[in-house]
Protein 1
Amino acid sequence: MASSTAGNCCVCGHQTSQWCSKCSEGVDKDGNAAPTFYCGRECQAADYKDHSKGPCKAANARKQLYRGALLLQDLFYAYREIAFDLDMINVEVKNGRLHVRERAFDAAHSGPLFRFPNHLVACPKDKAALLTFGACGDGPGQMYELIKKVFQGIRHPDTEAIEAQHRVKKDHWRIIRTQGNGEVDRVDYRHEAIRVSLIDSESYILDLAGAQYAREWFTGPPNLGWRANHNKEVLEGKHDDMIATNYDFRVPQIQAELTKRMNTAVQQWEKANDKTLTLMLKEKRASFEANKDALIAAVTHEMRDYVDWTKTEVGVDSLNAAMDQMGLEERSKKPKSDADWFGMSEQTKDLLRKAKANRKDISFHYF
Ligand SMILES: [Zn+2]
Ligand SMILES: [Zn+2]
């Protein structure tokens, strides 16, 4: 048993300052600390059978869920900052809304990614909102392998983490976006999140891009607050493609590669530290937090390396010329599905191969 602040023995009700050490950092459904108190060995022994398979296991599973969600959220922010695909020239708060203005889209003369406008955004909440703006699909899409990895052992074996969607009412929008062509974006978007079912049938929503709607809580049981609505409106299955006319098709190519880098960097970190992600999530809080920071730094480094490389080393001349040409070709045909979008034509593959042939030590994994 471990000692801490006082509570009531869950068997006899006497006040005590001892609790079960196995679930000392376990949490309840809302992610709050939930120690199980015992006045002494006798009461603990009497409750052992019920506790160890029930509340103790559940509290630790939720600990892994909430910590895993925190890790995924931080990784997602890091990923978005590196793979930022909006060219924002102005950001201001007016009447409780965040107004952003984009530069006119010009694929022929600009790269597909942009530096996040840190100089325009002072508030961390606004930064999170912009990092996740229009990126809800990237969470389930680009982070899917990591999501599965993080929840290993607690996810219901018959239930995959599923993509959940709901329609976001316009008046919920906190960000007002003026596109490069001067038009204000009025699209009624569907929002995507992940529903995670745990072994004991508890179900949670993991919303990595919730910050764009000023939602502070990115994970929690679906019976709380907005999640109640969310759950009601959840539509399972494939989402419609909503690719804006000014969308730069080069972005998903780079994102796909970044995802591979991210997954590889995580594997390398696990190997170097001789521990799996799930083990790291179960460790004592201080250890978990230190490891989380180190892991995010390692993964960020790997991703940044790649993006810097696409911006400089590759030679914007050869790669961008090829990609621009593909982009301009591809944009004239609207993709029908993700498969079409990611599946390049032979001609575009050829252009990439040529770009590749012009450089040494370049590996494309897109095809
Ligand atoms: Zn007792
Ligand atoms: Zn316990």
Protein 2
Amino acid sequence: MSRGWKSIQTLLVTSVQRLATEQKLQRLLEQDPQQALRQCGLSALQTKLKDLRVPVNQISVWLDDNALFMPHVNSEVSNLPIPAILAASGAKPLALLHGPARDLAAILRSCESAGLFGCLGPQEYQVYSESGRGSYHNLVQDQIPSRGMSNAWRTLLVSVDLDRVVLGYLALLCSWDSYLGELLGYPDCCAKAFAKRWPEAVAKYEGDVATQVVEDSGQGHWDWRLNILLRYSGCEMIQHFPCSFSCKKSIKLAKKYELSLTQYAPQLAAEQKKKLAVPVLYAGKLGIAPLVEAELQSDNSWQWNGVKTQALPGADKSLKQALRQGDSKKIKKFIPKIKIVDFSITSKNNKYSKKYKGVTCVS
Ligand SMILES: [Zn+2]
């Protein structure tokens, strides 16, 4: 057992046991979470939150090696996912990944080799099947305490800071959502906007908040680093939904991430830029879709060769179908109706920053 495992497990066993059973500590947690978590041996994040509570009768969790680390799984993942690279570089204080348990356990092995601490989250989830979303899931149907015995959908926490892994675990276990956002380093404006948008995202957009972000941001030349529309294919720079594509805190964070990624994985960073800097169709009520692999031409127009792409949830059937088929002729019919949210133009010195001509579809 690695030193990290033993420390994480010991801290978790002690803190979960104490938080679930000691009423005095529970009261202190509500009034002064900082102090209460410190009493559990955790150097808590400076936080103004005062409403952390333990769901006393609902805590049910497995804290053995298997549930926390799945030690029987070997690493076959040589390249770390972007959030883990950002955590390893210190740009991200804590990374939260989602996926099938065995994949996550393999990623954890690689993270440990890279000097990170980590463990799998407390629950396993039954997920909605969302066609065309790859392994990505926005909504969960049900959750149970995981024993680490199956390849169910789970979460993984990794950080250079062992305490932060344990605090992230407690936040997942007790549904301290705001605190988790803070631990993950998400801007507070974006965390608040997410909480506000979530009920509508569930009701209308299969739990995908991106549509609301596009609607609220409006048309513009947005920083490509904030393009969160391609995360289904593992392509992303930030891991949160920004309150708006003009959110200054998110842009600052995204630039910091890009710098780290460029330093640690230059090729991956360049690939992200190429993939994320694409125009996005905004066809009003018909829906929204990133035009995958569209390229800016020297005459300042966009060329899209009909590479198959997918509309965001809630889009009209006709648009969805045309996109699925990569049918540029059909897509072209939507062009007169659309606005374009353009992620690619960022730099003040960029010669394309003043004007653009829109999308040209080429069959
Ligand atoms: Zn924000």
